[in-house]
Write a structure and sequence with these properties.
Strand content: 25-35%
Distance between the termini: 104 Å
Number of helices: 2
Largest sheet: 8 strands, antiparallel
Order of helices and strands: HHEEEEEEEE
Strand order of the largest sheet: 5-4-7-8-1-2-3-6
Structural class: alpha+beta
Shape: globular
Length: 205
């Protein structure tokens, strides 16, 4: 009889232990609902939207010598690794093509504009047309003037920058010549006299 009671006790103890062990382990492994909710709103924030870089702009006001009616504005706009050149000029007495270049020195003080130096040519390349390679960085080709003395020019170049550096147009000068640039005669294209000049300055930010 005693043996029977002892065996029954062992059986109940085994059942109790088996029932409690898995239940306790399962309860400890399950994450609490509060723990999951505590991470809401604290994940990695979405990336911020960034606006494209603003273009860099420089400009020159072109003018002839004292008493000349020649006037103009030339802008240089740098974006995506190139510079867009836009020129509007009026008062030119002779219609047709006129050599048009960036010169090395930003100085228009001499009456004949010789103070502007030679063509801007940081690479030491030969003179050529605006789409030739190699060419001067300052080779902008010819500016075409209509019968009323006005004209516009638009071109894109990869040899100038507005940003600081060896190819920067800022601090240089723009020259309009009296004759056509033949885009081959060295070193100036046989463009004749300088009839207007303007110093290139960076636009205010």
């Amino acid at each position: 009889m005693q043996r029977s009671r002892f065996g029954t006790a062992i059986v109940w103890m085994a059942v109790f232990t088996a029932g409690c062990g898995p239940t306790g382990a399962t309860g400890a492994a399950e994450p609490s609902g509060g723990g999951t909710e505590s991470h809401e709103g604290h994940g990695t924030p979405p990336p911020r939207e960034t606006s494209p870089a603003e273009p860099l702009v420089a400009a020159a006001e072109l003018a002839g010598p004292a008493g000349s009616p020649v006037r103009g504005v030339i802008t240089f706009t740098q974006s995506d690794g190139t510079v867009a050149v836009h020129a509007e000029i009026s008062g030119v007495p002779d219609p047709g093509e006129h050599g048009f270049h960036v010169h090395d020195v930003g100085d228009c003080s001499a009456e004949d504009f010789s103070s502007a130096g030679g063509h801007f040519n940081p690479a030491g390349a030969p003179h050529a047309g605006p789409h030739d390679a190699p060419r001067h960085a300052g080779d902008l080709g010819n500016f075409t003037v209509a019968d009323d003395g006005t004209g516009t020019l638009d071109l894109v170049t990869d040899l100038l920058t507005v940003a600081d550096g060896p190819h920067s147009v800022v601090g240089r000068s723009v020259i309009l010549h009296a004759a056509r640039d033949d885009q081959s005669t060295q070193p100036t294209g046989n463009s004749g006299a300088r009839i207007a000049c303007g110093v290139v300055q960076a636009a205010a930010p």
